[in-house]
């Protein structure tokens, strides 16, 4: 898993934002002009000193639309909540999974039926490294 600190990224000018939302049905000719500009860094990053980019390797989260090669925006300052997608460290290995507490037990749940949930036990060296706030996927 590759990790990139958001502070190490170059400053880029804001990108033009097309007016309104993009129709997923029939297009509207009225929406063919630019409305304003959006700074994608400012949009994605709420806590710059605690935010990192992580490149995904593997396919255990494909049913959550997280694919091999995607970039995750991970905020280490956000407190994880039940059923959020997190980057965790288990016995020194990074993994991305959905965190779930059930019957007073903690699990990391994959989003692919080919993988099994991981029950977190006291014998494991476990830490939630950060909460996934955005997924950047290249089609």
TrEMBL record:
Lineage top rank: taxon: Bacteria
Q: SUPFAM superfamilies from the xrefs? A: LexA/Signal peptidase (SSF51306)
NCBIfam families membership = PRK10276.1
UniProt entry keywords in alphabetical sequence? Autocatalytic cleavage, DNA damage, DNA repair, Hydrolase, SOS response
UniProt lists the family membership as follows: Belongs to the peptidase S24 family.
InterPro entries reported for this sequence: LexA-like, LexA/Signal_pep-like_sf, LexA_repressor, Peptidase_S24_LexA, Peptidase_S24_S26A/B/C
Q: Which GO terms describe its molecular function?
A: DNA binding; hydrolase activity
Per the record's keyword annotation, is DNA repair included, yes or no?
A: yes
UniProt record, GO biological process? DNA repair; regulation of DNA-templated transcription; SOS response
* Region forming the signal peptide: none
Which protein is depicted?
Answer: SOS response UmuD protein, Serine peptidase, MEROPS family S24
**The species this protein was found in:** Cytophaga hutchinsonii (strain ATCC 33406 / DSM 1761 / CIP 103989 / NBRC 15051 / NCIMB 9469 / D465)
- Peptidase S24/S26A/S26B/S26C domain: residues covered: 16-132
């Amino acid at each position: 898993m590759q990790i990139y600190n958001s502070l190490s990224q170059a400053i880029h000018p804001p990108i033009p934002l097309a007016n309104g939302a993009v129709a997923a049905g029939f297009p509207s000719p009225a929406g063919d002009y630019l409305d304003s500009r959006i700074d994608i860094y400012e949009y994605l990053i709420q806590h710059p000193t605690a935010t990192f980019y992580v490149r995904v390797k593997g396919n255990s989260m494909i049913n959550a639309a997280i694919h091999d090669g995607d970039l995750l925006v991970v905020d280490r300052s956000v407190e994880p909540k039940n059923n959020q997608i997190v980057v965790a460290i288990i016995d020194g290995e990074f993994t991305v999974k959905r965190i779930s507490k059930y019957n007073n037990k903690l699990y990391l749940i994959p989003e692919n039926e080919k993988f099994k949930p991981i029950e977190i036990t006291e014998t494991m060296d476990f830490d939630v490294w950060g909460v996934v706030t955005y997924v950047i996927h290249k089609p």
